[in-house]
Amino acid sequence: MEHPNREQLLDLFCRLAYKSGDFILSSGQKSTYYINGKLVTLHPFGALWTGQVLLEMLPAETGAVAGLTLGADPIVSAVSVVSAYENRPIPALIVRKQPKGHGTAAWIEGPELVPNTNVVVLEDVVTTGQSALLAVEKLRDAGYTVTHVLTLVDRQQGGAELYAKEGLKFGAVFNIGEIQNYAKELH
């Protein structure tokens, strides 16, 4: 059963985040389109709908959500805030790309949770899947259990296969075909 605001989230992605052209992705690959998820996840309604849609997709045993800075920061925050409103409070963690350069030299920001807490890694856009995998690795190193990765958009360029190989369950709110088809209808 999909969330009633999923369609509005799709519309926002196509209007704000999806661009055609020639781009180089963070994976180094060339692409004829680019999706800047932050234009949606930092939009007031985009953040709300992101939180609502992803919260509904979380496994029942989820103890926290986490993601790699910067793309996942507004996503984990949105899910955490919406979870509080839904009376199902789920803390958010942010995984750094490098350890903090001072103080505790931490890789992970957020509340300290009990060991083996089930943490779901969230991502805005998955291409090869490498970004979320770094988050998974750092969370596991910190003693947490990670079995799921969820993304807003799956570009379907190897991420799902990589996660399967790593024993992770993977889910996407949208795949690239759905975004491209909807975007075409707008033009």
UniProtKB/TrEMBL annotation:
Its cofactor is Mg(2+). InterPro entries: OPRT, Or_phspho_trans_dom, PRTase-like, PRTase_dom. It is an enzyme of class 2 (transferase). One of its GO terms (biological process) is 'de novo' UMP biosynthetic process. Keywords: Glycosyltransferase, Magnesium, Pyrimidine biosynthesis, Transferase. The keyword Transferase applies. It catalyses: orotidine 5'-phosphate + diphosphate = orotate + 5-phospho-alpha-D-ribose 1-diphosphate. The keyword Transmembrane does not apply. Its EC number is 2.4.2.10. Belongs to the purine/pyrimidine phosphoribosyltransferase family. PyrE subfamily. Homodimer. Catalyzes the transfer of a ribosyl phosphate group from 5-phosphoribose 1-diphosphate to orotate, leading to the formation of orotidine monophosphate (OMP). This is Orotate phosphoribosyltransferase. The lineage of its organism: Bacteria, Bacillati, Cyanobacteriota, Cyanophyceae, Pseudanabaenales. The gene is pyrE.
